Write the structure tokens for this entry.
Amino acid sequence: MATEETTPRGPAFANAYAISFRLLGDAELAAEVAAKAAERLGERGDAGGEPGPREGLAALASRAVDASLAAAGSGSAGPGEVRRASERERLRTLFSEASPQSRVAAALVHLAGYPEEVVAGDMDITSEQVRELIGDFRPATEDQWLSLGDPALSGSGAEPQRRRPGVLWAVAAACALGALLWFGTRSGERPELEPGSAAGVQAPEATEQPGTDDAAAGPRSPTDHVRFGPDVPVGASRGCNEGGSRPVAALGEFGSAATPAGTYALDDPETGSPVPMVVLIGEPGLPAARLGADSSLVAITEGSIHLLVDPTSADVGPEALAELLAAVLESHCVDVNRVSVVGFGAGGSLAGRLTCSVPELLSTVSMVAGWSEPGCEPDPAVTVSVVGATDDPTVDTGTALEEVGTAWADALGAADQEVDGRDEETLVRTWRGPGGLTVQTTTSVTGGHGWTLPASLSVNPVVRDLGRVAT
């Protein structure tokens, strides 16, 4: 039974309590968990303000779920909770086995009672993608999970009221989530970009395949004659032309026949028009297919070409992968202004080395839970993101991440540095350069060697939205 002291009074606390109680069934323990989750986001349990735009429902839900799972079993069930213990245990099992983004989406929809469209806005994905994320949490009845709420707060001993925002709250939420969409996935001010067309992307126009000689261009720095942003025009690869080389097979090995460098899977929607390409490089602990699912990168870039790469070892060099990328550009219809590479763990290190090998083929490069320092000055420049957790046992994060970010910023010509505490456990450093160039590092206190919510907030918008074009 919730007492006056445990009754939620602030919006962040109230949301965290709704999630925690449904997972734990113990009012006192749920209040303690909720207070800590809210306090970490800058709102104490006895405060009544709204969470700031950088903090958001997604981050709050993630903390509430993680803390509740860690606290499970340390409290005592209240009256009437024995019969619901098995339901809560099943619910906790579902959350413990889910990906970070599925946890957040399911907590907000099924435990906090938010509509799917509101959750989609907060997580910066579509409502359909929210439904996919919460598929494993589908309740037997509409209110199965919501009915596990604290009866003292709902005014009913058996069936708590379904928590749905009213009309005024929905309007306020839409405004707040608009700010979240703008601020929650960036740190500091966004680069100033030239206005795009009314449709957001200009009509396709053929551009020269990267890598061709341009003797008239003369000497230039990595950031000369390039611009980054969501509004860059489409650029067609040679594979868009009829009579191109035979398409790369959907599944295969790359590297030499005698010593393969790894395996790949290629998914091409074959639209007949140039589409972005997303390259995911995995490692044995997190293969590329699972990386695509855990990060939701495949889902949020639906309609793009996806190249999933699994190197044979951490020692694989970038040359074989560069040849595979060139072959795909030669034989498939790719928007050459939107080619993003995301590497995890050892794959992150390979992504960094690939940047030095063929920067002309890449628009953005993200290295998560593994990275390499630049051994070059990539020309043309590439947007770089590096993400790590200080409790990752496989890499030295700490101050090393700042050093890696500084090295990439120096190599690419990004000088102006901004430091942003996204919350008390996440630090974002951003270096900016000409033409909208950014180098960004994201350091979180927890997350271990896995894909985390801070990784999604930093990497996913870059992969989905940014392109690079010659000017």
